[in-house]
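Entry 12.
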Amino acid sequence: MNLFANIRAVVINALNEMTKDGTLPEGLDLSNVTVEPPRDALHGDMATNAAMVLAKPAGAKPRDLAEALAAKLREEPRVTSAEVAGPGFLNLRLDASVWGDVARAALAAGPDFGRADLGRGLKVNVEYVSANPTGPMHVGHTRGAIFGDALSSLLDFAGYDVTREYYINDGGAQVDVLARSAYERYREACGLEPEIREGLYPGDYLIPVGQALKDKYGDSLLEKGEQFWLEDIREFATEAMMEMIRGDLASLGVKMDVFYSEKSLYGTGQIEAALKRLEDMGLIYEGVLEPPKGKLPEDWEEREQTLFKSTQFGDDVDRPVKKSDGSWTYFAPDIAYHWTKVERGYDMLIDVFGADHGGYVKRMKAAVAALSDRRVPLDIKLIQLVKLFKNGEPFKMSKRAGTFVTLRDVVEQAGADVTRFHMLTRKNDAALDFDFDKVLEQSKDNPVFYVQYAHARVCSVMRKAAEAGWDLNDAKLSQADIMLEDAAQATLARKIAEWPRLVEIAARANEPHRVAFFLYELASDLHSLWNRGNDKPELRFFQEGDEAATTSRIALARATAVVISAGLGILGVTPAEEMR
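Predicted 3D structure (tokens):
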């Protein structure tokens, strides 16, 4: 039950009636008419911009149009007042029974309350993490993994058919470096001193790989040249790293639907086919790029390359797809990979990249626009850096990884639920501080604790009711007469009503952090009501001898928990039933 959508339908119906009676001209575009919470709750329950957006095309004064619309809306039983404000905004107040209806709807729908059909089953591919398979995942991957996973869940909740995908970057030179690094650990397992020279991966995580290689090959590779073992060890080590990465993701509760190998694009004609499609469209040519702006690199030289006309699709410059020596650029297999997504029938693509990939956004969007004839939109979300602190100091690197703090380090210190929630307390393109002390403290300043505590408080009420012999399951509570006798109760009920609208807004913007913000606000409203009960006994959830009041208040509290649980589910966080 999306109350805001329902009241918007009432507004649209009133506008249609005004068209029929000649107050408005035919053919007005009503798509920009909105109904939303007012900026100031003192102004009403909802506000509509209808008069403001329609006045000019209707040839009317905004306030005159607002007054006419207000007269129509006052005929709606659920609308108790419609008042014009400012230049032509219209503030609405709704009958108190409406908010009780929403709470009952939440109880009746349970975990599905707020689910939307916004996506209408459209197929969406969300590619995230996609870390090089050269070692354990680091804290930067952690934030990207959580963001991508929560976004996928949000889109699923909003009615999209979502595929979670990991692109394995196993086709470049970095996997050769991995193989050479693993070979040194193999030599170590054979009793020799490893030569971890500059450019190799130094982390201890490759020691077990070296031992596994010894178990498989014995010492048969020691006297052989690289040309004899590089390919086999590359494949062996890559799979070992992917197994480690899958374990890292599992520790966060992240499970991919598809792992797509970059290497599978090479030697199969897929890169050539994608570029041939662009060539047939007249978008591939041989040319010389302009020198980079600013100071020229010392090794800069003009050279002819194979270029993609990405400027025709909004990019700043055309992009090389083949080097002057005939080898592919990094961009070429990425074009082919995204072409496979288009070919697999996705209606929308989302890539989650690290902040260091900002320069890749325009060229990748240009490629997808070209390959899909602008039919398939690509949204690229950049994930900013995470700064780790503990005891007031920057958290040091992991010895096991060699050069960085691992995902496992973070999860072992803070736990998966805390890590997931806190990583979503900032928008993806804003830097985030992760202080191990603060994310574990039990206070209002810690969002994850505050939300979990609200859910746990409701669970304690339900346990107390059961101990007292009350049969208060959700089905029974959904039939309760929910009475809102105090401002704190009304505020909580109104916030519950915002949940379906929030889901749609967050899904349209691909912004799961909005869910975390909403849950904090909802929890705050629940805690405020709870604290009001401490001061005013007549507002407590249990009212001795008054079954109707008790059932009403418990129903409102339980509806709040239903929404918190659904929101935490989207974020991948387990709702707490009690706090210790």
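Annotation: The chain is about 50% helix and 10% strand. The two ends are 35 Å apart (CA to CA).
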